[in-house]
Amino acid sequence: MPHLQVLQDKYAKTGKFTVVGSHLQPSDPTKFLKSRKITFPNYSQLRHPEAQPKGIPHMVLIDHKGKVLKSGRVSDKEIEMAIKEAAGSSPMWDSVDVVHHKRTVKNLQIGRPVRSILSTLSAKAKKNDDAAKEAQAIIDAVNSWGEKELNDINKLKETAPTKAYQKMEVLNKTFYGMPLVKQVYPEMLKMKKDKYLIYLLNLRNQMTRLKASGKVTENSKKYIAGNLQKFIDKYPASDTLKGEAKAMIDEVNSL
Question: How far is CA 131 from the centre of its chain?
Answer without folding.
Answer: 28
